[in-house]
TrEMBL record:
Domain VPS28 N-terminal: 1-116
Organism: Cyclotella atomus
Compartments in which it is found: Endosome
Name of this chain's protein: Vacuolar protein sorting-associated protein 28 homolog
Short name of any one Pfam family annotated for the protein: VPS28
Keyword Protein transport listed: yes
Coiled coil: none
Lineage, broadest ranks: Eukaryota, Sar, Stramenopiles, Ochrophyta, Bacillariophyta
Length: 220
């Protein structure tokens, strides 16, 4: 792992009243990207706390959480992509006490699910969206897309659709397969790539999950 740049903000030095952060526009952009990442992690932590305390509705939480998850991978790539540092290390350096955000952004990758008893019309829409997300994800893998920041949003969208389906069992195979890959990708940096073997395995797992999903629909 690369060491942090020598001119990184002295986050732990509380004795200085003013810190000269940058000497050029390039350095300024670096610190702005770091600030964006810090802000997104902090915002996610506050959102998770608010949801846990019933301070916001499910729909408000889901909408904002999806937005933050989407923005996170972009901000992570911009801030840390060139120096080899992980988000976990970044959070340690800046003493970020954000366990809920770390779990949501680095492990889960999707908002907290809530099963609903939607009407048949909404279920039909959800099924159609799920099918489309399966096809989009499998096509991406077949076309040799291997970058984390390309695959993670596709699997996140698929997972979001799957968890909206009513009456699926807790151990529903497609959910477990997609969740496994989301956790793997979320543990990687946005600029990382899965290798060819992982790509073949991901396609196989998506194909298997789609087949099980189709069997589930036919049984209803």
């Amino acid at each position: 792992m690369s060491n942090p740049p020598s001119r990184w903000p002295q986050a732990l030095d509380q004795s200085k009243s003013q810190i000269d952060l940058f000497d050029s526009s390039k350095e300024r952009k670096t610190y702005e990207n770091l600030a964006d990442l810090y802000t997104l992690i902090t915002a996610t932590e506050h959102l998770e706390r608010a949801y846990a305390q019933d301070a916001i509705t499910q729909s408000e939480y889901t909408s904002e959480c999806n937005k933050l998850i989407s923005q996170f991978k972009i901000a992570e790539k911009a801030a840390l992509g060139s120096n080899g540092m992980t988000t976990e290390t970044f959070m340690q350096i800046y003493q970020m006490d954000c366990p809920r955000a770390a779990d949501r952004l680095l492990r889960m990758g999707v908002p907290e699910p809530l099963k609903t008893s939607d009407g048949s019309g909404n279920v039909a829409v959800t099924v159609a969206e799920t099918v489309q997300h399966f096809i989009t994800a499998m096509d991406a893998v077949k076309l040799d897309q291997r970058a984390v920041d390309e695959l993670q949003p596709l699997l996140s969208d698929l997972m979001n659709a799957l968890i909206q389906l009513p009456d699926t069992p807790n151990d529903f195979g497609p959910n477990q397969q997609v969740k496994k890959w989301l956790e793997k990708l979320n543990a990687m940096r946005a600029v990382d790539m899965i290798d060819e073997d992982d790509g073949r395995q991901l396609y196989h797992d998506l194909e298997t999950a789609y087949s099980e999903f189709s069997r589930y629909l036919k049984s209803k």
